[in-house]
Design brief:
The protein has helices spanning about 45-50, 90-95, 95-100, 105-115, 130-145, 160-175, 190-195, 225-240, and strands at about 5-15, 15-25, 30-35, 55-65, 75-80, 150-155, 180-185, 195-200, 205-210. About 35% of the residues lie in helices and about 25% in strands. The strands form two sheets. It has a six-stranded mixed sheet with strand order 5-6-7-3-8-9, with helices on both faces. With about 240 residues, the protein is α/β, with parallel strands linked by helices.
Length: about 240
């Protein structure tokens, strides 16, 4: 499936109370866009709106894929909470999408996705036996398993140690190449390393921030990436 862009224009309310007064969000097709901003400004709600599961929020405006086709069935969302089912094994959780659709899971692909995120040895374990970082990697493997053209990620690497974070970022960047990715993060380093485009949301609205030159994922010690990280952090602090 070709990865379309996404446009969302309008205002967002929760329970009749305004959350985002006005927004014009454009996510380029086949690229990785990072969305940053303070807690509570509506970043996760935007992901849920695009995924079609934000029952608590109302969009007054338009939401569309760039190719004009419906978004339904083309979006995979990794939420902040891992949402692993405790009675299933790690492998069964990764294959949950197929189970819910009533189809047989591709066991070879499940094993490969677990290997990709470093959880091959934990395939038969229950989620309760995993660390927070391992649970997050299992949730990411489940999202990657869906192989959708549009992928929404909400703080997907936040629970990982620095070494594992860089490794899993590399894997995700490779497996999601060519897909339309919108990722919420609070980490300027993550945005500078992974983004084709960087957006910052605050109470004043949405604005763009220049991504570093070069194709992501950028080297963790790349000078221009580190410079962009510093500039982005300064912008976030100034807006807080």
């Amino acid at each position: 499936m070709t990865a379309p862009g996404i446009t969302l224009n309008g205002s967002v309310d929760i329970g009749g109370a305004p959350l985002i007064a006005q927004i014009a969000l454009a996510v380029a097709p086949g690229q990785w866009t990072c969305l940053l901003g303070a807690s509570g400004v509506g970043k996760s709600t935007l992901l849920r709106l695009i995924a079609g599961i934000a029952d608590e929020a109302a969009l007054t405006g338009t939401l569309a894929a760039g190719d004009g086709a419906p978004l339904a069935g083309r979006v995979a969302l990794m939420a902040q909470s891992d949402l692993l089912l405790p009675w299933l094994t790690v492998a069964e959780n990764v294959a949950l999408g197929a189970r819910l659709r009533g189809t047989a899971p591709d066991k070879a692909r499940v094993a490969q996705r677990l290997a990709d995120v470093g959880l091959a040895a934990q395939a038969a374990q229950r989620p309760a036996t995993l660390s927070g970082g391992q649970r997050q990697r299992a949730a990411l493997a489940r999202t990657l398993m869906e192989d959708r053209p549009i992928v929404l990620l909400d703080e997907p690497f936040s629970a990982l140690d620095a070494r594992t974070r860089a490794q899993v970022q590399d894997v995700a960047a490779e497996l999601l190449r060519g897909k339309t990715v919108l990722m919420v993060t609070h980490d300027p380093a993550e945005a500078a390393r992974l983004s084709d485009a960087i957006l910052v949301l605050d109470t004043g609205g949405l604005r763009s921030h220049a991504a570093p030159p070069g194709a992501p994922p950028r080297a963790v010690d790349d000078a221009q990436m580190l410079s962009a990280q510093g500039a982005l952090l300064a912008e976030l602090r100034a807006g807080s």
